[in-house]
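Tokens in:
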């Protein structure tokens, strides 16, 4: 199977079986999504969704969040992983939005990564979800699934290398959706420790599954 045929088969499968693919984070506007994605680093979306309603109620815009002190915000984030850093990041992010972006969430990766707590992955999420830009956020799920399915080469050893390979072969208009396809597949089927290969419609082309059979 050629690389092109592999990508076509995977995309066709997801088109048929996962026609609706979107973030599981709950948000109403770009500011709320930015807060949620910053909190989601090394944390489940489920935990973030339990935490954000109180934060959004108390700090509905960057204006209120920028005024918060560490001691005021920290209790809202206590149950999230790395609460100290994320509390500082959220306050710093809100202040920078007001100081440099007129209170609006910028929509370029280059601008977003200037914000505290925002790396390339987070910036790619924001721009692809809000603006459907062809940016591929590579988290642990995307990294694992793309490797196992043979969408990327073994030498792609970093998230950036995986991102570049995926963007090269996925049609530009589908990149923002393919991001969620790979995440959801990794979250519910292609699990890290005990993948549900018997339930996966892509096992016939999966390099990981084929190697497992040979063992």
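Residues out:
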């Amino acid at each position: 199977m050629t690389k092109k045929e592999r990508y076509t088969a995977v995309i066709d499968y997801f088109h048929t079986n996962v026609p609706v693919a979107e973030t599981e984070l709950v948000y109403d506007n770009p500011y709320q999504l930015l807060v949620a994605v910053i909190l989601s680093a090394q944390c489940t979306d489920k935990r973030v969704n339990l935490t954000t309603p109180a934060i959004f109620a108390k700090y509905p815009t960057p204006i209120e969040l920028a005024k918060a002190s560490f001691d005021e915000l920290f209790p809202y984030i206590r149950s999230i992983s790395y609460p100290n850093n994320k509390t500082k990041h959220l306050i710093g992010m809100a202040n920078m939005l007001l100081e440099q972006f007129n209170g609006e969430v910028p929509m370029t990766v280059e601008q977003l990564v200037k914000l505290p707590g925002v790396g390339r992955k987070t910036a790619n999420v924001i721009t692809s979800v809000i603006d459907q830009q062809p940016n591929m956020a590579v988290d642990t799920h995307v990294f694992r699934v793309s490797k196992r399915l043979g969408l990327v080469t073994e030498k792609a050893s970093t998230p950036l290398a995986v991102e570049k390979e995926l963007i090269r072969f996925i049609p530009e208009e589908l990149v923002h959706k393919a991001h969620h396809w790979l995440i959801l597949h990794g979250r519910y089927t292609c699990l890290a420790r005990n993948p549900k290969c018997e339930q996966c419609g892509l096992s016939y082309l999966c390099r990981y599954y084929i190697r497992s059979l040979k063992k």
